[in-house]
Amino acid sequence: MPHLLRITRAQLSAVISHANLCEPEEACGILAGVYADGAAVVKKTYLMENTAHSATFYEMDSREQFQVFDEMRRDGMEPVAIFHSHPHSPAVPSQHDRDLAFYPDSLYLIVSLMNQEPESRVYRIADGKVEEAEMEVVEDVG
Predict the structure, then answer these.
(1) Who's near 91: CB < 8 A, 6+ residues apart?
(2) HSE of 133 in the Cβ direction (CA atoms, 13 Å)?
(3) Average per-residue pLDDT for the chain
(4) d(CA 26, CA 52)
(5) How many Å apart are CA 132 and CA 92, to the nearest integer?
(6) Partners of 109 in beta bridges
(7) Backbone dihedral angles phi then psi of residue 141, each to the nearest 5 degrees
(8) What radius of gyration do the chain's Cα atoms show?
(9) pLDDT in tens, 7-33
(10) By the 8 A CB rule, do 105 and 1 touch?
């Protein structure tokens, strides 16, 4: 599986805006796309509701998630990354994030809002192991 997330500046901006709007709670969502040229290429951003309404963890509504997965399947995409924010901590997976990483084929994008400038980092989390991945921010994914 790729260790590179290719995302447009506009898509990343939408994720960061969603994180800011949800603060002080964690924001969450799904980045749908395809695997191409050794990268997970984001084609569509799904901004989801954190039904836990928590500042330290997130939960996605199962019905909303089902609708998103159904739409992705119809459009020939898959969940290339799951994203969430850390309003008051670094962009590093917490133990809770590791425990609930249910999609080992997807990357995980974390946005930290703890400093003036948001920080975004990407990880692969599988079998409790965390590896930092790369993120390439582009103008257009084609």
Answers:
(1) 110, 111, 112, 119, 120, 121
(2) 27
(3) 94
(4) 9
(5) 9
(6) 83, 122
(7) -100, 0
(8) 14
(9) 999 999 999 999 999 999 999 999 999
(10) yes
Residue pLDDT, tens place only, 26-70: 999 999 999 998 999 999 999 999 999 999 999 999 999 999 999
pLDDT reading at 142 higher than 70: no
Contact in structure between 77 and 34 (CB atoms under 8 Å) = yes
Residues 108 and 70: their CA atoms lie apart, in Å, by: 20
What are the structural domains, with CATH classification, of the chain? Answer: 4-138 (3.40.140.10)
Neighbours of 74 (CB within 10 A): 8
Of residues 31, 27, 92, 89, the one with CA closest to residue 53: 27
User: In 3D, which of 23, 138, 120 has the Cα closest to residue 81?
Assistant: 120
pLDDT tier, 120 (very low <50, low <70, confident <90, very high otherwise) = very high
The encoded tokens of residue 58 equal 């997130």
Q: Kindly state the tokens that stand for 96.
A: 């809770």
pTM beyond 0.90: the answer is: yes
Tell me which amino acid residue 111 is: V
